[in-house]
Amino acid sequence: MQVKVQRIHKESTEAISERDRVVVTNPNSKYPQPRQQHASFIYNGKLHIFGGQVLIEATDASAYFKFDHYWIYNEENWVHRLFEGKCPPPRQNWAYAVNDKHLVIFGGEPSEEGEPELNDTWVLELSTMKWREVKPTSAIPRPRSFHSMAMHQGKAILFGGMFSIEGARVFDNTDYFDDLWQFDISTDTWSKIKEKNTQLKPLKRGDHTIEVYNDTLYVYGGHCQYTTPLFMHSFDFKTHNWCRHDNAMPSAQLSHVKVGSCVCGHFIVMYGGTGIIEDDSSINLIFIFNCKTAKFIRLNEYKRIGEFPCRNYSSLSYNKVDQLIYMFGGESIDYQKMDLYTSKRNEVGDLYCIDLRDFLNKCNVCGKVAEKRCSGCLDAAYCCREHQVQDWTNHKIQCKNNKVNKT
Ligand SMILES: [Zn+2]
Ligand SMILES: [Zn+2]
Fold it and tell me: Phi and psi at residue 13, in whole multiples of 5°?
């Protein structure tokens, strides 16, 4: 079984202004400028990206992209567009979740230095590309950054994150969270999700990965105050039970912070991050978590130089139409190449595709090579019509949850 990673294009070499804390996108650029911690998602079969940040070397501070521009990767070209109307203010370490109609963002750190974390909610209507600031009618999660979000049945789910006490963004002076919330887009209400078996819930953390497959939330990695979180945890939205998968961990040597992730069929794909293999350098390991068997599969070996680029804070988006995962941007830190005391970081703006079709193209019923896909969700694969019919009672709920927007 083979995984292929291929670079589609190299990054833009455009310089970012060294003075401004807010980066304005140049409408004449051919490619999006290098960045990390941006949003990336697939809408109507095309990759969209916006936001993110870059380090300004001269001042050792970050500059944030304004939210009024976005990019669409369309037939081998990047097309540059404008959001209409009011947009969220620039920020870093925020989180977003996306379904077939909306993208929701929450919180993060504002671009003004020394200002506390945010807890504002914004909704982007994907059909019109217009932002709306939510005026919540209920209690809202506390301000935070480094939290994670995912979508479950049209509702945005939020877990964990951090809050720096007195604006000092130092890990020793930080509150970590383990609260679980959902945001209902149709009523603009946040609510806490009822939890059982809380002795098995994930430790308080930030910079972690969360993804949803069917009716289960998965929480993995990130960092805690005093320890490295090791286990994959899951939460069942139907029974409200937490579960800890003690036998499912890729390696005790990996901290799995700042990974790029996406859901691809019944696999959670995680790329790179920073590991303790080499200090805080970016790594290039690909792990996939099989949600049906609750097991990790490691797809490659760590090699500092090679076909797999070292990345952290890159974005992964699975395009069901061409069955490829697109990876854009992120950070490439190589501590072996630099003086230990320089914190030089290096954002990248190249686009890769990751081909996992060998994993995905297996019949849901018999496991043989499958060439047909369910037209509702494009997730379930079948070797023949008979096996699709046979699987329908089992597949229909999952199909409804994962349906593809076709416009
Ligand atoms: Zn079959
Ligand atoms: Zn389906």
Answer: -100, 10
